[in-house]
Design a protein that fits this description.
There is one protein chain. This protein has a single domain (4-244), classed as Ribonuclease Z/Hydroxyacylglutathione hydrolase-like (Metallo-beta-lactamase, Chain A), CATH 3.60.15. It has helices at 40-47, 64-67, 70-81, 91-106, 115-118, 170-179, 201-205, 209-212, and strands at 3-7, 23-27, 30-34, 56-58, 86-90, 120-124, 130-133, 136-142, 152-156, 160-162, 184-188, 215-218, 235-236, 242-244. 26% of the residues lie in helices and 25% in strands. With 245 residues, the protein is an alpha/beta fold. A hairpin with a 2-residue loop joins β2 and β3. The longest helix has 16 residues, at 91-106. The protein is globular, with a radius of gyration of 17 Å. The chain binds Uridine-3',5'-cyclic monophosphate and zinc ion (2 copies). Uridine-3',5'-cyclic monophosphate binds at residues 12-13, 63, 65, 146, 165, 196-197. It catalyses: 3',5'-cyclic CMP + H2O = CMP + H(+); 3',5'-cyclic UMP + H2O = UMP + H(+). InterPro entries: Metallo-B-lactamas, RibonucZ/Hydroxyglut_hydro. Pfam families: Anti-Pycsar_Apyc1.
Length: 245
């Protein structure tokens, strides 16, 4: 099954020239929204994409640039379309997403008292492959980001790796390419400064060319244009363009 990817945005958390790093993944007529950050509603509006054309949302972790648009998404689906959005989420993220992020804004006594009242929740467990649609499967892979906080990268159809925000994990990338048929890697990048909770361009440039050629860079800062031609065998993913993966 050929997948297509259209990023709503390719910016890092504080980018202002680019929307948040959220993507629409198309598998034939099925549309999965990967992360729904603060700017997702505006990015969808800019693309002319109605919310009810999205079949499900999957979230990687609970930073604002990945979940900050969920409150608006849920309210507009409920009161505008009379529907509950399908939400794929790692079991370990349910409690923090509801208790620490959404409860304050979304809860209404007797109407919305839990995440299940606002979303059609489908739980994901590490190591288990979930069939999302006839042409789309996903496996979540926990990858380090903020110490003590869970964050999950995604492996689609056993061949496409989509990194969550994460630190550099060369062994994982090497294993996916050499042992698990990985054809394409959508990877976050931090262009300047120390990585700390992200993967730096310098780190990615240390990968062998056979892996770099598979990588498209995303989640970058406003300085991206000045790095064109300085990314080895890797290219930048551009927001709103449709890529066949
Ligand atoms: O220890 C920390 C924790 C966070 N941060 C910043 O906050 C941002 C939160 O969203 P993000 O994960 O896309 O990017 C993160 C970084 O830009 C940081 O620099 N160091
Ligand atoms: Zn982020
Ligand atoms: Zn993050």
């Amino acid at each position: 099954m050929t997948l297509r990817l259209q990023m709503l945005g390719t910016g890092g958390a504080f980018a202002k020239k680019y929307f948040n790093n959220n993507g629409l993944l198309y598998a034939e007529d099925y549309t999965l929204l990967i992360d729904c950050g603060i700017t997702a509603p505006l990015a969808l509006h800019t693309l002319g994409k109605p919310l009810d054309e999205i079949d499900a949302i999957l979230i990687t972790h609970i930073h604002g640039d990945h979940v900050g648009g969920l409150e608006e998404f849920a309210f507009r689906m409920k009161y505008g379309f009379g529907k509950k959005p399908v939400l794929y989420i790692a079991d370990k993220l349910v409690r923090p997403l509801w208790e620490n992020t959404l409860k304050g804004g979304l809860s209404q006594d007797g109407i919305i008292d839990s995440l299940d009242d606002a979303f059609e929740v489908r739980l994901l467990t590490e190591g288990q492959i979930e069939r999302v649609s006839p042409g789309l499967s996903v496996e979540i892979i926990q990858t380090p980001h903020i110490p003590g906080r869970a964050s999950y990268s995604l492996y689609f159809n056993g061949e496409i790796f989509y990194s969550a925000d994460k630190t550099f994990q060369p062994e994982l990338l090497t294993r996916l390419v050499r042992e698990r048929n990985c054809r394409k890697i959508l990877h976050e990048v931090q262009l300047t400064g120390p990585g700390e909770v992200h993967t730096t361009l310098q780190e990615l440039l240390s990968l062998p060319p056979e892996i770099q050629t598979k990588i498209l860079l995303m989640h970058y800062g406003d300085e991206m244009e000045s790095f064109i031609g300085k990314t080895g065998e890797m290219d930048f993913l551009r927001q709103h363009e449709i890529y066949t993966l």
